[in-house]
Amino acid sequence: MRSMATVYYCAAAHIPAATEDDLNRYLDPAERMRYERMQAMVATRFLHGRKMAKQAIAEFLTLPLPNVRFEYSENGKPYIQGHRHCHFNISHCETAIAVVVSNTNIGIDVESIERHISHPPKKALMLPYTAQWVHAQSEPRAKAKTFTLLWTLMESQVKLADSSIFRAIKRLAIALERKEGRQLARVATDVSPYGSGCQWLAFEGPVHAADQKEKPPAKDIVALAFYEHPRCLVYQWVDRGPNILLEPEWLAHSERCDA
Fold it and tell me: What is this structure's pTM?
């Protein structure tokens, strides 16, 4: 069977206010307790991420929505008990929510570029080999964008491997190469065996009409990590569902690296 992955991207401007009906439909008791401990904006993103994921999973598995209940690994990776062919991930940041559902193991991460302009990246957050691509940039926005790309690649790989970001910071080496005008990302297996065989795709979140009043508009990067390259469809989640099929410009694309 061909590997498939469907990505659902929702910009912060399109996240609706929480309703009691949504809380009852999309959060189980444990999730409701987590929701109630969160600050308002984080809680709203948490709820909408669960809503996006559970709707997508219910469609993928042809299950009634109440039957979509998350279980978690020791490292916190979510899964659906009894449905090993269904893989999914959720990520959210200040500017967006990203969800992926696939028939192959996969990880996803979304991160705001603007955050790293106002808070410059720290060298200690990456292996020096990986961080060199950030420090090679002289302009603050380019530095922030490169850091965000590398960070989302790292986080998505951690989710794929059901591992730890602390381990990735110490051991995951990523090289960025230019080829035919497109930026490619690969695991530098000659530097570190950690994550060998992982592949990536990454794209920049689209600018929406609601964002135009911001100078510059809020931007983010979404990264996918996988072992078996899937055919990807990317939808923009607006209002109640994924109603716009996006054709993103991929910032990063990698082929399998053999150790």
Answer: 0.90
